[in-house]
Amino acid sequence: MTKNTNRPQWGERTLAIHAGEGIDPVTRASSPNLVMSSTFAPNEMAGFSARNRSGYEGYVYARLSNPTVKQLEEKLAALEGGEMALTFGSGMAAAHALLAGRLSEGDHLVISDTNYVGVAELVRDTLPRFGIAVTPVDTSDLDHVAAAIRPETKMVWLETPANPIMRLTDIAAVSGLAHKVGVRDVVVDSTYASPVATRPLSLGADFVMHSLTKYIGGHGDAMGGAVVGRREELEALNLEASVHYGGVLSPFNAWLILRGAATLPLRMKAHQETALEVAHWLEGHPRIKRVHYPGLPSHPQHALARRQMKNFSGMMTFEVSDGPALAALMIDKLEVVHYAVSLGHHRSLVYWIPTADLMQSTFRLGPEAEKRYRAFAGDGIFRFSVGIEDAADIIADLDRVL
Ligand SMILES: *Cc1c(COP(=O)(O)O)cnc(C)c1O
User: Fold this and answer.
1) From the CB of 385, is ligand 1 less than 6 Å away?
2) What pLDDT, on a 0 to 100 scale, did the predictor assign at position 43?
3) Ligand 1: which of 213, 227, 383 to mutate, most ligand atoms within 8 Å of CB?
4) Chain segment 5-25, per-residue pLDDT in tens
5) Start-to-end Cα distance in the chain
6) Which CATH number fits domain 265-401: 3.90.1150.10, 3.40.190.10, 1.10.10.10, 3.30.70.3270?
7) Which fold has domain 7-261?
């Protein structure tokens, strides 16, 4: 078994490379081993049940834990400054683990009304079938959050910046408010920010959720998800969610994501640099109506972005007057930027998201909330995940279709 090294005093780049990893004591391998084994032969009597291992500390079965997966979990905990991390087979499996593992019949969830579409649909359609009430609100407005909280509210779920519209939520303010009135869990889906930009646990959140498929894996070749938080709660979630819901991460994906995560700080620096240059160019283009990028002074929450984000990432949106026509041209003509969903990869990705479609598919916002949504997204936006190619080549590619 690899001897993990993890020194909290290390800088972020060192942690990204070394946390959770170490020289293999048997082979002296310097890079992480890929251990695909689903079962492990104990060297002493060990309990059969995941809940009663008779004090045995070694690996037993890969749905409970696996050495390669464990190395990634230790790296993620170090990067987020949390006591422990748990990984899952996708970001959605991580989100489901938290929602189903922490909420029960009669509980109430307050959630950002602009959210990753899969999470929005999960809480809208599935949780009510299990007797869990859900109130979507604009979490960028503290009064809205305060008004939505009830005595039975057990969880507040934030996403910042929110996919797809780039609206931010003040994590420290909402966490303070929620905990003061007795809400047990504040969860932050920090997929857009990555731990390089924002450490939600240090701002008062109880759990951080990530789609590892995005920035942390970073190369568009492995799906995964993670939850980071306190050890006691995550050990309980491990026994319930990993063991019983079963959506665990494949060791092979963990191994790919480990390699991706090692360069996260360097990639995020490059994402920000490239995105800033591209955002400025887009803002100056006559065909572009509006750009939303937290790193631009024109972002309506730029002050909050400066306070809460150490890195503005590569995510932005832009609007034009004829979105569908431009999308069709992009599918045909783009060479560097791929017209495709997903985000946070080293290669640039762009996708057209019409507001009317989203209003149908997610929370079906009332007129007031829809107005707030449209203040960020108009009738539709291009969600643009700026990669780490040369900014000049991304700009030239866009220039040909604009
Ligand atoms: C992609 C994404 C998810 C879901 O993650 P998967 O790995 O695709 O299951 C959740 N939240 C946000 C913000 C995302 O961008």
Assistant:
1) no
2) 87
3) 213
4) 667 789 999 999 999 999 999
5) 54
6) 3.90.1150.10
7) Aspartate Aminotransferase; domain 2 (3.40.640)
